[in-house]
Amino acid sequence: MRKLLPLVISAALGSLSANVFADTLTEIYNQAKTNDPTLLSARASKDSAFEAINSSRATLLPQINLTASYGFNRGEKTIPNQGMNDRNNDSDIWNASLGFSQELYKRSSWITLDAAEKTARKADAAYAAAQQSLILRVSTAYFDVLRAQDNLEFVQAEKAAVGRQLEQTKQRFEVGLSAITDVHDAQAQYDSVLADEVLAENELINSYEGLREITGIEHSDLNVLDIKRFSASKTQASVDSLLEEAQQKNLTLLSSRITKDIAKDNISLQSSGHLPSLTLDGGYTLTEQENSGPAAQDFDSDNFNIGLNLSVPIYSGGATSSLTKQAEFDFVAASQDLEASYRSVVKDVRAFNNNINASIGALRAYEQTVVSAKSALEATEAGFDVGTRTIVDVLDSTRNLYDANKNLSNARYEYILSVLQLREAVGTLSEQDILDINTGLKQANSKKAQS
């Protein structure tokens, strides 16, 4: 499966300036790892999920609180008919307390911790899936640029060929060897190719935007694939062995299994609302009161308490039973989602494996098509020179040749991407695949694509 690689598209980028050193696939991938928002978001979500484990574990640990307060009271007292003045009674009160609570038994806390750990595993799988997705997205965007670059070069080569045919037709018309309709046919074909060139240039510009979206960096020139080193081979492993491997390694399946496990735990979590809870609670309180006034006395006290608190739910209006049933339905949904994921993975593995085989067959056919189209064009041009073929035949043969070149180029890219897609479906796609492809890259030259 690792025998994918090279493909060349020669040419300078027309309206786009070239760098002294073109960007390699490895360089662009490394830039994407640093700048891609999707990957960075998945990484942050993973970190958040792992931090949630600490939050869930905290409820199982002692809870200790310290509180303090200060109060001031002022009272006035008048004793009538005794010849006594008003009395002021002022009090300063300081209070400090230290309390603690420790869960001894609460089933829901342990279930919540277990669910948090599984959620973290799911987030870890999601991050790994995002890494694999980035490999495929970068590769796809990279080859989209090369594909668009190939297409532009073939269109420009066709424009040059049709332009020569148009000039020859005009010369033949001037000496009476061709009709004016031949000139019009050649001119129409040339104008059509000019329109194709505009579209091809726009496609190339847009494909570079696809790379910039991932890396956040402008790119203007890329290393290309070397068709002399390119070879395509069928997957060595059987479909059954690929499916078996996918069941163990496919990250979507792994995530769906964890989701199902979490849904099952949620049933236990909701039903635990029927269970009692037991806590150990205690505290120490210190109070100091300073009084002022006639016959005032200060007051100090301290108090320590500790005890067991048992809470037994009796009736919650049916909420616990309802939430448990809801969790059971969620578990059924998660089970069906897992089955859907499995079927999707089976479909993808089979489809991408079929795509590889189809791409290999298409490559061989298109290689022969290019040879045949080139021979057909040469024969048609010779027939046109002696008057047995028309200019329309020549133009059609020219278009067929460049279409064949374009199809051959696309087939190579489709083969490479199909291999990567299969590896992602199986769950074995890694950075090593980027390195393998990168070894087949080469600096683009300034020659136009050969016809």
UniProtKB/TrEMBL annotation:
This protein's GO cellular component annotations are: cell outer membrane; efflux pump complex
Instruction: Show the coiled coil region(s).
Output: 113-172
Does the keyword Transmembrane belong to this entry?
Answer: yes
Q: Where in the cell is it found?
A: Cell outer membrane
Predominant cellular place of this UniProt entry's protein: membrane
- Spell out the InterPro entries in the cross-references: OMP_efflux, T1SS_OMP_TolC, TolC, TolC-like
Print the keywords alphabetically.
Cell outer membrane, Coiled coil, Membrane, Signal, Transmembrane, Transmembrane beta strand, Transport
This protein's record includes keyword Calcium = no
Q: Which residues form the signal peptide?
A: 1-22
The record's section on Gene3D superfamilies has: Outer membrane efflux proteins (OEP)
Ranges that cross the membrane: none
* Any GO MF annotation of the entry: efflux transmembrane transporter activity
Give the family, as the similarity comment puts it: Belongs to the outer membrane factor (OMF) (TC 1.B.17) family.
UniProt-listed NCBIfam families: PRK09465.1, type_I_sec_TolC
For this entry, the protein name equals: Outer membrane channel protein TolC
Question: Which species is listed as the source?
Answer: Vibrio pectenicida
